[in-house]
Amino acid sequence: MTTFISKRQEGNTAYLAATAADNANNTKLWKKSKFEEALLAFEIGKGDARDYDDVAEMVKCARSIGITALAYASSCQSNANLPKVLEHNEILLLFKRAISNFTFAISKRPSDCNGEWLNGVILKTESAVRELQAYVCEALKSWQERVAALEKILTLVSDSGKVDGIALSLLHLVIADEIYKAIVVADEDSNWRECLGLTAEISRSLQCIRPYWARGTDGIWKSKEAPIDFDLIFESLAETESSCQFYYARSKAKQFLASGEVLLNQLLCVNENFDMDLAFVCLDQFSAALQMLRKEKDRETFQCYETAAIVSSKIGVLYSKCFKTPDRGHLYFLQAIQFADIVKQTTGAVFFSKDWYQTAKREVEAHRETMHAKTLAEAEKVRAPIIAKLKPIIKAIDDCLSGSPVERIKKLLTHIYKEHPPKKVDAKLDKFEKNDCDEGNKLALKAVAHYHPDANKENGDEWKILCEEISKRINNVYESMKN
User: Fold this and answer.
1) What whole-number distance in Å separates Cα of residue 203 and Cα of residue 217?
2) Neighbouring residues of 222: CB distance < 8 A, sequence distance ≥ 6
3) Spatial separation of the C-alpha atoms in residues 20 and 33, rounded to whole Å
4) pLDDT at residue 81 greater than cutoff 50
5) Are 61 and 103 in contact (CB under 8 A)?
6) Amino acid 281: pLDDT
C-alpha cells in the first residue's frame, strides 16, 4: 500500500477518535491531539500524492483536511469539548484551512468525479463559511471586528478558478451581511454619517460578488444539479442591494437636510443684512435632499416619506420666513402634513410632538385664517356699496318687524313677496288662515327656500345681498316663534 493511502487511513482513524462521543478518557487535550494528528496525517498524504502526481488521492486528502479542520473549529466554537484550548486566531485559521482545502478539492477534481461527491464538498464549503460567520458573530462584539476577521480569511483563501470563486463569493456575501446589519442599526439610530460610510463599504463586497452573479449558466454555478440555490442567493443579494440604495438615499438626504438646517438657523437669527445668496444655498440643500428621496422609476413618489416630510416643512419655513412668500411656503407645509399622513397610514407612526410637524400645522392653520379673512374683506368691499344703495329698502323691511312673532312674520312675508317677489317661477306666498306659530313657521321655512342666497346666485350681486338680508330677518322671526 502506498504511503499516502496509509496516511489517509491513519488520519481517518484519528478523526473518528476525535469526533467520538465524550467519555471519561476523552479529555479536551486528548481530543485536540487527535484532531491535530488527523490533520498532520492528511497533510502528509496530500504531499505524497502530489509527489506521485496522483490527483484523485490528493483531492481526497484535501477534502479530508477540510472536514477535519471544520469539525475541529466547530468543536472549539461550541466551547463544550475544548474550552480555551485554542486562541481566536487559531480558530480562524482552522476555518481558513477548511475553506481552502474544500475549494482545492473541487477545483482539482478529476473529470470523472462523482456528482454526488462534488455536491457534498460544495455544501461543505458553504457550511464552513456559514459556521465561520456564526463564530465571529459570537466571539466578536463590534461589526468592525467581525468584518476584519472575515476579510482576513478572505485574503488567506487563494483564488484558484471558478469553484474557488464560489468560496470567495460566499465570503463576500457574509461580509456584506455583517455590514448590512450595521447599516440597519445605524439607520435606526439616525446616524447618517456612519450609514453613508457603511453603504460605501458594502458596495465593495457587492461589486466583488457581481462577476460571479453575472456568470452564465455554465459549469456548476447555476446548473440544475448544483446543491446550492444560487438563484435564491442572488435574489437575496438583489434585495440587499436595493435596501442599501434606500439607506444610502435616506442618509444622503439627511446629510443635505442637516446642512440646510444649519444655514436656515443662521438666516432666522439675522435681523438685518439678510443674505439672499445664503438663502438660495439653503434652498439648494433642501431641494437636493428631496431629489435624493425620489424613486428613480417614479419621480412623483418618495423612498422615505418621513424624511421628505421634515424637508418639506423646512422648505416651508424658508419660503415663508426668509423669502417672504407665505403662499409658496403654505404649499410645502401642506406637503409635509400629507407625507406625515402617508407614514401614519403605512406604519402607524405619528409626529404630533415633533417641532417640524407642529410648525407645519400651525402655519397651515394661520394661512387658512388669513385667506378666510382676506376673502371676507374682499366680499365686504363688494358688499358695502350695495348695502348703502339698499339702505332704504332694508329700512322698509325692518319697519315690518314689530308686534308679536306671528304678526311680524305675517307683515314681513307680505311685504317682501309684494315689493321684492322671488325670482323663481311659481314662488308665491300662501294665505294666512290660522294666524298661529305653526302656520308662521311653515310659511317662514318656505320663504327661506325662496330667498336663500345660494338659490339666488345667478340674479346679480344686488339681488343676492338683498336675499341675504331678507333671510336673516326671516330666520330671526322664525327662532322667536320656536321659542
Assistant:
1) 25
2) 215, 216, 230, 231
3) 14
4) no
5) no
6) 96
* pLDDT tens per residue, range 309-337: 999 999 999 999 999 999 999 999 999 99
Task: Give, as one character, the DSSP assignment of residue 425.
Answer: T
Residue 354 main-chain phi, psi, to 5 deg: -80, 140
Q: Which of 163, 162, 52 is nearest to 102 (CA)?
A: 163
Give helix then strand counts, H and E, for the chain.
Answer: 17, 0
What mean pLDDT comes out for the span 243-256?
Answer: 93
What is the reported pLDDT for 357? 96
Geometric angle at alpha carbon 366, from 363 and 368, rounded to 5°: 110
Q: Where are the domains of the chain?
A: 3-249, 250-385, 391-482
Q: Please compute, for residue 126, the number of CA atoms within 13 A of its CA located in the half-sphere on the CB side.
A: 11
**Cα–chain-centroid distance for residue 34?**
52
3-state DSSP helix/strand/coil percent for the chain, to nearest 5? 75, 0, 20
DSSP 135: H
CB atoms < 10 A from the CB of 38, how many? 28
Which are the contacts of 130, defined by CB distance < 8 A and separation ≥ 6? 174
Residue position matching grid coordinates 308662521: 440
> Residue 375 carries which side chain, given as an amino acid letter?
T
pLDDT of 25 reads 57
